[in-house]
TrEMBL record:
Protein name in UniProt: Inositol-1-monophosphatase
Organism of origin: Providencia stuartii
GO biological process: inositol metabolic process; signal transduction; transcription antitermination
Organism taxonomic ancestry: Bacteria, Pseudomonadati, Pseudomonadota, Gammaproteobacteria, Enterobacterales
Cofactor: Mg(2+)
Keyword DNA damage among UniProt keywords: no
Coiled coil ranges: none
C-alpha cells in the first residue's frame, strides 16, 4: 500500500506541474502549430500535447523508472514493475486550441491485474485537482466529493461525448430517448473532465459510445470512489489499447440510462 500511497502523492504534484506547462502554451495558443491525426480536423494535436506528455514521462521515469507508461501521444513504454501509468496530457485539445477552458490533464495508475489504483484529473485553468486512490474516496482539491443523489433524469445535466470515429447513429438514438425522458445533456469536449464532474456531482452522468483508455480510466475511478456506478469498461478484451463504451452515473438513474442503449 505504501507504494501506491507514495505514487499518489507524487503524481498529484506532477499533474499540477504539468498543468503549469500546459497553461503556458494555452496562453500562447495562437502561435502553436496544429496537426491533424489521420487527416481528421476534429482530432488535433499540438506541441503542447507532446511536450506536456514528455514532461510527465520524464517525471515518472526519474522517480519510478521501472513503471510502464501508456500515453496518448507517445504510445506504450514497457516497464518491469507491476504498475502502468495511463496518461492523457491534454484531454480536450480542440477546446484548448480554440481558447475554451474545458480541457485537463488525466493520469491513472493500473496494477498488475489492470485495476485502477490512482486517478488524477487536473483542470489547471480553474486550479481544480480531482483525485482518488482506490478504497479511499474521491476529492476535489482538499474536499471529499460524492455523485449527485438525483433520482430522476429531469433533475440534472448528463454529459455526453461523440468523436468522428463513431457514426452519428451511435449517439442520436440515446439522445432521443434522453430528451423524451425530459433529461438534458451537455458536451464540453473533454471526457475526462466531464467524468470528474460526475464524481463531483456537477453532472448526473456521462455517456460516450467509445472512449480510449487514456480518456476515461482516471475519471471512472473517481466516479467509483464518489459512489457512482458504471459499465464494466474492462470487459472489452485488450481495453487498454482498444477502448470501450462508457456509461457512468449516479446510482438511481443508471438503470434507466442503461436501457437507452438497448431499447428500440
Amino acid at each position: 500500500m505504501n507504494n501506491i500511497s507514495d505514487r499518489f502523492t507524487f503524481i498529484k504534484q506532477v499533474a499540477i506541474d504539468a498543468g503549469k506547462l500546459a497553461v503556458s502554451y494555452y496562453h500562447q495558443r495562437n502561435k502553436l502549430n496544429i496537426e491533424k491525426k489521420k487527416d481528421d480536423g476534429q482530432d488535433l494535436v499540438t506541441v503542447a500535447d507532446k511536450n506536456t506528455e514528455q514532461f510527465i514521462r520524464e517525471q515518472i521515469n526519474q522517480q519510478y523508472a521501472q513503471d510502464a507508461i501508456f500515453g496518448e501521444e507517445s504510445g506504450y513504454t514497457q516497464g518491469k514493475s507491476q504498475y502502468t501509468w495511463v496518461v492523457d496530457p491534454i484531454d480536450g485539445t480542440s477546446a484548448f486550441i480554440f481558447g475554451l477552458p474545458s480541457w485537463c490533464i488525466s493520469i491513472a495508475l493500473l496494477d498488475e491485474q489492470q485495476n485502477s489504483q490512482i486517478a488524477v484529473v487536473y483542470d489547471p485553468v480553474h486550479d481544480e485537482l480531482f483525485h482518488a486512490m482506490a478504497g479511499h474516496g474521491a476529492y476535489l482539491n482538499d474536499q471529499p466529493i460524492q455523485v449527485n443523489p438525483v433520482t430522476s433524469l429531469n433533475e440534472g445535466l448528463l454529459g455526453v461525448g461523440i468523436s468522428s470515429r463513431m457514426p452519428p447513429e451511435r449517439i442520436i438514438p440515446f439522445l432521443d430517448k434522453l430528451l423524451h425522458a425530459k433529461g438534458m445533456f451537455v458536451r464540453n469536449g473533454s471526457a475526462a473532465l466531464m467524468l470528474a464532474y460526475v464524481a463531483a456531482g456537477k453532472l448526473i452522468g456521462y455517456y460516450e459510445p467509445h472512449l480510449n483508455s487514456w480518456d476515461c480510466l482516471a475519471g471512472l475511478l473517481l466516479i467509483k470512489e464518489a459512489g457512482g456506478v458504471m459499465n464494466n469498461y474492462q470487459a472489452n478484451d485488450n481495453f487498454l489499447l482498444t477502448g470501450n463504451y462508457v456509461l457512468a452515473s449516479s446510482p438511481e438513474v443508471y438503470q434507466q440510462l442503461d436501457t437507452f442503449l438497448y431499447s428500440s
